[in-house]
Design a protein that fits this description.
This protein is α+β, with helices and mostly antiparallel strands. It has helices at 3-15, 41-45, 49-56, and strands spanning 23-27, 30-39, 59-68, 80-83, 86-96, 99-108.
């Protein structure tokens, strides 16, 4: 077994295993095993949520989605994705070693 095959096996058997880290979610109409995390502004920007919210008068809710690159595509920044029936804007997206990481946001007033 080469490195690529070992990595794919680990992704399927551990990271994207519904009994380990992943959960079933609906992404763009497809039911997939994803890892979805709430992401704070402090983690993203390095400054406080209160500071940003006061300046913008809008609260943005961020989530990070991890999906197998064999199951999905790398969406364009600025496009809209539907996760579990809710629309989100794509803030960042990248693929690395078989995993697509997508940062999404939704504005709430």
């Amino acid at each position: 077994m080469n490195f690529k095959e070992a990595l794919e096996k680990d992704l399927s058997s551990v990271f994207f295993n519904a009994n380990e880290f992943a959960e079933e979610h609906e992404l763009e109409g497809e039911t997939l095993d994803l890892v979805v995390e709430d992401t704070s502004l402090e983690e993203l920007k390095g400054y406080g949520k209160d500071q940003l919210s006061a300046a913008q008068e809008v609260f943005s809710h961020f989530k990070t989605i991890f999906v197998r690159s064999s199951d999905f595509y790398v969406p364009k920044v600025g496009s809209i994705l539907v996760l579990n029936g809710n629309e989100y804007y794509v803030e960042e997206s990248a693929e690395d070693m078989g995993i697509i990481r997508i940062l999404i946001s939704a504005n709430e007033s």
